[in-house]
Amino acid sequence: MGLTLTVLGCCGTYASPGNACSGYLVSDGSTTVWVDAGAGTLANLQRHVPLDGVDALVISHEHPDHWTDLEGFFNVCRFVTEREGIPVYAPAGLRDRTYNDDESPFFDWRQIGDGSSASVGDITFTFSRTDHGPETLAMRIDGGGRALGYSADTGPKWSLGELGPGLDLALCEATFLQEQEGEAQHLSARQAGASAGDAGVDRLLLTHIWPTIDKERSRAEAVDAYGGPVQLATVNEKYEI
User: Fold this and answer.
1) pTM metric for this prediction
2) CATH homologous superfamily of domain 4-240?
């Protein structure tokens, strides 16, 4: 029982040396879902599962740092594994940025939106539009009696509380430090901590930190706002939920 979260990449906007952009594996032991497929995540995915070991993909939005390794995975499916019909859940608009008709029959595109839900095996995803453009979907992921919340990208007008009560772990973007708040439609670590505290989540894991920022400063700002221990997402680490 339970869920695991494996970090394939956790850099905001571009990858630092040895890391990758946003990407995660979520598994309940029998089903594995690839959530976001930013640059570098396909390489790291192969450290944890076989190339044919992904049951579906869920993409939060169409900014390139969250999906471009989908193109590499298309080539894997077409020329290596020859798998067809892999579900790809994504907001409207992302498909137009990919191979379009050439990807059929390898990908089975399934449109998601604010308030919609999807099930892959016994794992259920429920989506909430965030404060980020273009259409960006945070997600609550339920499986094995546990609940994971993923903020995707967002500004401060959206909160983790939108994903409902009882989150065992919140994976929340923390692009900036407090002094940078308002520079772009992203959260600071302080804002991520405050959002997690207000939502009553049990554990907070920071991700999507700008590569040049001191991560320990981010953690300290989040701890002050959250009121409890805070972890930093680490590439290729697995977290039990």
Assistant:
1) 0.97
2) Ribonuclease Z/Hydroxyacylglutathione hydrolase-like (3.60.15.10)
